[in-house]
Amino acid sequence: MFKFKGLRKHLITFSILFFFVLCVSFIPVSKIQATSTDQEGQMNAVKLTSYRKKLTKGTKYKIKLKNMTPYLEATYKSNNKAIATVNSKGTITAKRTGTTKILVTISEDDEVVQTLYLTVIVGKKAYSIQLISRDSITLQVGQKTFLKTSIKPKDSGEDPVYRSTKSSVASINSTGLIHAKHVGQTTVYATLLNKKYVRCIIKVVPPSESDDSETTYAPKEIRK
Question: Could you tell me the pTM of the whole model?
Fold first, then answer.
């Protein structure tokens, strides 16, 4: 009799667990995924990859957005079309010297959920560039620093194009930020549209080593 009661308790417990598992298995996976996506969408607001862009007359720039979803729609409007226009796909065309803002409106089901502004500066083409940073910089792995340059004229709407000969050692992004990654040596360049450029040698050492490289601070302009 005692064994029968014990067996009955086990059967009841097993039946309850089986029923619970069966109910959970019928919950639509799509609903779980949708809930997760909605929560992530609330946490990740739409952002511009750049909130300030310098251009020269006649050049174009495509606005890039982060955290966009298929449910969102972006529309664009220029505050001053005489300085810069923008089409329905977010491509800006610089018209004349000046500063204006591009309004980016994010909507969902025809309801505005967010507004963003991109400042556009249209200036003259640069004719010279000087290196303000040292012409040789030593960084420890993981360190970051900016490559500082000076462009003439001061009201130029041009930003130099940056590159590293060995990005695996140290990379440099579109704003001139250098990131030391692995021990070694590389050269970074900042180049204008007229092909004038400056360069800087980057030496990357282990975190424990100190900066013992010979460096100079004199700005210099290098021409091809």
Answer: 0.59
* Domain range for 151: 128-205
Count the domains in the chain.
2
Report DSSP letters for 76-89, one per residue.
Answer: EEES-TTTEEE-TT
Same domain, 140 and 200: yes
pLDDT at 16: 65
Q: Give buried/exposed letters for 17-45 (b at 16+ CB in 10 A, else e).
A: eeeeeeeeeeeeeeeeeeeeeeeeeeeee
CA distances from 26 to 18, 22, 36, 38 (A): 13, 7, 18, 21
Q: What is the pLDDT of residue 157?
A: 87
Task: Give yes or no: residues 197 and 158 share one domain.
Answer: yes
Q: Using an 8 Å Cβ cutoff, are 188 and 178 in contact?
A: yes
Which CATH number covers residue 98? Answer: 2.60.40.1080
Enumerate residue ranges in the chain where pLDDT < 70.
1-43, 209-224
